[in-house]
Amino acid sequence: MPDELERVEREVIDCRRCPRLVAWREEVARTKRAAYAGEVYWGRPLPGFGDPRARIAIVGLAPAAHGGNRTGRIFTGDRSGDWLFAALWRAGLANQPHSVSRHDGLRLTGCWISAVVRCAPPANRPLPSERDNCLPYLERELNLLSEVRVIVCLGAFGWDGTLRALRMLSAEIPRPRPRFGHGVRASVGRHELLGCYHPSQQNTFTGRLTEDMLDEVFATARGLADGRAQADRL
């Protein structure tokens, strides 16, 4: 991984900016869930991960308390990740359809995964101040990932956070401000934003998000990324 991305990773892991989130993530790591009582929880913030030469970035909300906060990798070890990694594998962006630990051999090709907030929040609801404390990390990642052209935003929180991070990078946000929706697209500077319902159990169990819908999002993302790459070469 390039030195600058490694520097961001180290800073994220060491971050203690938000007392409420620090207390929560560490309490969860101590008490654990009964099913994982024998495991050592990560209990720290999570950096983004993937291919530094990615053309597609995925931005989620925050780590799950017993998912990424346990395993040390965003989306790894939770139901949302089960859906996401399977879809990435089907799209040719991952070498395997599942991820259970940060040492399980998962590799992403052409894809980078990140989040707006890097610590597991109580009730999965970060405060606005906590979001704002974390946004500079997403801003720096997107700035360093110079080949990213498409950003898949998972849920309204991911969409809003990505727009805020791009504005911090001096990108011109369209007016009226693009609103989130599944399959909605918005051009912001050199990036194309693509909205996708979050693969949470609330959405997948109810059928609001299906495998076909998720596959369509990543097929669209790959097509947009290829088109933008061709345009960049002209």
Structure description:
- By secondary structure, this protein is of the alpha/beta class.
- The chain has one domain (3-233): Uracil-DNA glycosylase-like domain (Uracil-DNA Glycosylase, subunit E, 3-Layer(aba) Sandwich).
- Helices cover 42% and strands 12% of the residues.
- It is built from 8 helices and 6 strands.
- The chain has a 6-stranded mixed β-sheet with strand order 1-3-2-4-6-5, with helices on both faces.
- Helix 1 packs antiparallel against helix 5 (128-144), helix 4 (79-90) crosses helix 8 (211-233) and helix 5 (128-144) packs across helix 6.
Task: Give the arrangement of secondary structure elements.
Blueprint: H1 3-14, H2 19-31, E1 49-50, E2 56-60, H3 68-71, H4 79-90, E3 111-115, H5 128-144, E4 150-154, H6 155-168, E5 185-188, E6 191-196, H7 201-204, H8 211-233
